[in-house]
Amino acid sequence: MILVNEPLFLGNEKAYLNQCIDTNWVSSDGPFVKKFEEMFAAYLGVKHAIAVSNGTVAIELAIAALDLQPGDEVILPAHTIISCPMGIIRRGAVPVLVDVDSETWNLDVNQVESKITPRTKAIMPVHIFGQSCDMQPILALSQKYGLYIIEDAAEAHGAEYNGQKCGSMGHIATFSFYANKIVTTGEGGMVVTNDDVIAERARSYRNLCFQPQQRFLHEELGYNFRLTNLQAALGVAQMENIEKLIAIKQEQGANYTSRLQDTPGIQLQKVEPYAKHVYWVFGLLLDDAVPFDAFDWAKQLLAKGVQTRPFFWPIHEQPVFHKMDLFKEESYPVASKLARRGLYVPSGMGLKTEDLEKVCVIVKETLSVYAA
Ligand SMILES: *Cc1c(COP(=O)(O)O)cnc(C)c1O
């Protein structure tokens, strides 16, 4: 079986973990947390990085740090993970959806302006599968209407838009270090910003809104979203190798592209000239002419020893939101199609080249009947 994801630890991970045990620093107070934050901020070229327990709470923390109020609207793509609308809803704000582009699978920037109302406070571009959204038009709307930009860069460590790193362009950005992400701490996340006030609020909310003057006196309700020193130890070791990790993903992406780009029956994610794509995962979209859907296809591939994952199920089709009377009559056809026709092939950091080659042969086998 070729697994959809296997991580890779090629540096000081073990040594730094041992250091945590040897020094008794296992909580979030340990020195690796600060080091990890400093390395991450320096890598992105931003002023503040705030380590948190995962990429999901990073989004909720970002919404809290921007001080969004109940009823404030945040525009985001329909093709994303539940974490995005969840963080908005948990703070009482309102998610407003737009469809994604049929070729890049990223937020369709042409659909954003018509969704802006007097209550709109932010836009949340999600850099899908390791490729930046088209940020220039998004930043222009931010300027024109005075909106915050919250980048969800959970899948885009090291990705760039016209030479600028994903996560460094908005007012605030979030990252995930889940085991299948480009940098991993097992579970973990980061909130980054250049704004001192936003950073201070994020740090306070992360840590129960303890006050420096009188620790156990609270003016606001915060969270415990802290990352442990053990997790940060992995993060520091991973950041020491970040360029190597990104090079591995880019080589995988190039290899998959050259082997699969002319395969009849599938479409690959379009790579835009503005993007340094870091290929978090390698997605494939079935053409309409292929008579099976992605779920059938995944079963065929699994029977031949290739594990895959479907794309995100779209936000407007989530039963949990229909129960909340959200998005019921709304339609985002591209996001709906991606959910039914798309899957991604093994893309882990630890994927061997010979396994990648096998995956390509098997993908082609399943589609050969449809070749002209
Ligand atoms: C992985 C991911 C998250 C959530 O991160 P976790 O660490 O798993 O909570 C958020 N947004 C996107 C786009 C992701 O891919």
Characteristic terms for this protein:
alpha/beta, 372 residues, 4-stranded antiparallel beta sheet, binds pyridoxal-5'-phosphate, Aspartate Aminotransferase, domain 1, 2 domains, globular
Description:
Belongs to the DegT/DnrJ/EryC1 family. Keywords: Aminotransferase, Pyridoxal phosphate, Transferase. One of its GO terms (molecular function) is GDP-4-dehydro-6-deoxy-D-mannose-4-aminotransferase activity. Pathway: Bacterial outer membrane biogenesis; LPS O-antigen biosynthesis. It catalyses: GDP-alpha-D-perosamine + 2-oxoglutarate = GDP-4-dehydro-alpha-D-rhamnose + L-glutamate. This protein is of the alpha/beta class and 372 residues long. The chain has 2 domains: 13-239, 3-Layer(aba) Sandwich (Aspartate Aminotransferase, domain 2), CATH 3.40.640.10; 242-371, Alpha-Beta Complex (Aspartate Aminotransferase, domain 1). 37% of the residues lie in helices and 15% in strands. It is built from 12 helices and 14 strands. It has helices at 13-23, 31-44, 55-65, 83-90, 135-145, 196-206, 229-240, 242-260, 294-303, 319-323, 333-341, 353-367; strands at 48-52, 73-77, 94-98, 120-123, 148-152, 160-161, 164-165, 172-176, 189-193, 266-268, 275-276, 282-286, 309-310, 342-345. Strands 1-9-8-5-4-2-3 form a 7-stranded mixed sheet, sandwiched between helices. Strands 10-12-14-13 form a 4-stranded antiparallel sheet. Strands 7-6-11 form a 3-stranded antiparallel sheet, with no helix packed on it. Strand 6 (160-161) and strand 7 form a beta hairpin. Helix 1 (13-23) runs antiparallel to helix 7 (229-240), helix 2 (31-44) packs parallel to helix 7 (229-240) and helix 8 (242-260) runs parallel beside helix 12. The model has no long low-confidence stretch (mean pLDDT 97). The structure holds pyridoxal-5'-phosphate. Pyridoxal-5'-phosphate binds at residues 54-56, 80-81, 83, 126, 152, 154-155, 176, 178, 189.
